[in-house]
Amino acid sequence: MSPPKGARARLAGVDALKGLAIVGVLLAHMDFRGRFDAAALAWVARGQAALGWCVLAFFFAAGLLAPAPRDTAGLGDFLIRRFRRLIVPCVVFGITYRVLIAGLAALKVGSIRPDTPWSGLGLVEFLLRPMGPQFYFMPYLFAIALAGALLELAGGVRALAFAGAAACLAAVWAAPGPLAPYGAAADLIPYYAAAYGMGRALSPKGPGRDGLALAPWLAFLGAACLLQGARVPAYTLAPAPLYLALTALPRADRLLERTRLGRYSGGIYVWHAPLLMPALSLVCARYLQGAPLVAALLTLTILACVLIQKGVSRVAWLGAWDFQ
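^ thats the sequence. predicted structure below, dont judge the formating
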């Protein structure tokens, strides 16, 4: 039996949003100064400006798709699933990339230098510290999902909205504004939390679209705009109307089936950096310039990540690296 038309549209809207967002993530990590020509860097900058909401969209989508825990047993199950989904892969990929980089450095491949694991916290740092420019997302999302689940269990999605937005506003009041709309900077956490909270307010897995639960987040973004400038609050607001617009687009699910970007966004996210895209950029920059260079690197990176993800998903003992 096929799902209802509305369900298909919602799924298509989420996947379409994630498909656009993953392109933004690739552009965010494509600032290869000294390797790209000025025209290519200009195109990258334009893409970064247009898709600066990309990481916030993944927090929004996580809130949109998260099941609401109904009791303490449900909360425990929710946290176990989130831990397996986020923290375990973060550790697995962190160790994997450190071992690969250490091996390439030992073989003196290019200019790769080892990410020395034995300084500071030593083995604990080697095992637990996120590796690569994108893996901060996983522990941040786990912490935000945990706080959100506790608030939602205590008083529903509206309790999450009012208490969460107040806490975010207090954090923004006490801190300088973030320099970019994505990254591991702690002053971005209130905005990540707001994106997640807006996803919960619009979630089909919760009580449905709740304007009263959305209002505190909109008020927070308005106040943050006055306190820290409009740029990051505007990017934080962007995923919600984009998602609503995408759900209303005719044949969105059919278009998405042709691109598959949303379906493979998880694999692209974990595999593109810190090794694959930089390596492909060396090849592309040798033969291309300007917009063709950016387009070719985007295309090759996506194709390579999808092929790796498909290969990993077909091998049972590689399940720890199967991130979809």
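The longest helix spans residues 137-174.
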